[in-house]
Amino acid sequence: MPNLDMLLLKGPTAGVEQGLNEIRFQILAEGIPANSEGMSELRMYLWLILLNAPPLRTDVYLDLVRQGASPAHAKIQNDTFRTFQGDPLFRRRVTQNSITRVLNAVAWRLNDAHEARVNGWQSPPTLSEFGGSPDTAMMSRHSLAASIRTDASTANDAEQIGYVQGMNVLCGPFLYAARSEIEAFTGFERLITHECPGYVRGSMEGVHKGVALVDRVLQAVDEKLYTHLMNTHMEAKIYAFASVLTMCACTSPLPEVLKLWDFLFAYGPHLNILCIVAQLVLMRNDLLNSASPNQLLRSFPSLNAGAIIPLATGFTSKIPEDMYEDIVNHAK
């Protein structure tokens, strides 16, 4: 099987879907080559491919930036300086100004698209109109052979998909991994509009569904740990909200976040729910031996993607079909 460099250089030899499956397998088996700081020549290109994010014309992004402060600008300013605040790697590479520009540009894009739908105007161009089509490949929950993708529903136009607190943390890894703001914008907007729009609606309904699923999955895969946490009043809503919303990017270190996102973009961001449960299982002994697990769950231990991913993939065969479907659809 060709390595990732060759797959990107020469393209798939047996069709697009086969090429995507080869990329997914390589990521699962060997990971994306990167240095100790998580920097990689390939990562951002692979993320955009896996998210099915077609190229964006530079002038489209620049026009959004020239609009200046979006209606969400005050919220964005309040969040920007907190983005990976204690991470020297991130601070060395990503400026607050770049975070602010990308978030305001996304806020404008979402605001304009929402107004166009509500008022019956022609919708402003979306990234899908610059080429490409939604990836509808189905992921086998047992083989992890492909990923599940469905377009975001626009049926509920009364509730706008817009800026919510925490989007800055979802945006951060894109800016860290990308070579340009335009790349970061393209990947970030694709993620929140096609993969997890339920996370960024006003009510954040997708996040609440995801948090509830953490409890359900934990009960299915580790009844003893689940019962212990319930007996100590540690429902997932108390400790897992940020991990669901940010796809675990709220837990350091950043290079491990990038590795975890490689897996999530390859096989589906919805699998973050299983990754959160995997972190709990990795803490199992400490949690079971603690009369006050809330002390341990105030902040998760350092992220270890190499330990989390095998556990999470193993859970797929242990949970009921209907629960798995709920996981797939919770962020839509």
How does the SSE layout of this entry go?
Layout: H1 4-10, H2 16-30, H3 43-50, H4 58-66, H5 73-80, H6 88-93, H7 96-119, H8 167-177, H9 181-195, H10 205-221, H11 223-231, H12 236-239, H13 241-245, H14 254-267, H15 272-282, H16 284-288, H17 293-297, H18 305-315, H19 321-329
Give the gist of this structure.
It holds the Pfam family RabGAP-TBC. Helix content is 58%, strand content 0%. It is mainly α.
Describe the structure.
Residues 37-268 form the Rab-GAP TBC domain. It comes from Pseudopithomyces chartarum. One of its GO terms (molecular function) is GTPase activator activity. InterPro entries: Rab-GAP-TBC_dom, Rab-GAP_TBC_sf. This is Rab-GAP TBC domain-containing protein. Helix 8 packs across helix 9, helix 10 packs across helix 11 (223-231) and helix 15 crosses helix 18. The protein has helices at 4-10, 16-30, 43-50, 58-66, 73-80, 88-93, 96-119, 167-177, 181-195, 205-221, 223-231, 236-239, 241-245, 254-267, 272-282, 284-288, 293-297, 305-315, 321-329. Residues 121-158 have low confidence and may be disordered. It has 332 residues and is mostly helical.
Count of strand segments: 0
Q: What integer is the average pLDDT?
A: 86
Structural class: mainly alpha
* pLDDT < 50 runs, ≥5 residues: 121-158
Helix content: 55-70%
Main sheet overview = none
Give the amount of beta strand, in percent: under 5%
Shape: globular
**Distance separating the two termini:** 34 Å
Query: SSE order in H/E notation?
Result: HHHHHHHHHHHHHHHHHHH
| Gyration radius, in Å | 19 Å
Summed up, the helix count is: 19
GO cellular component, one term: mitotic spindle pole body
InterPro entries: Rab-GAP-TBC_dom, Rab-GAP_TBC_sf
Domain Rab-GAP TBC: 37-268
Protein name: Rab-GAP TBC domain-containing protein
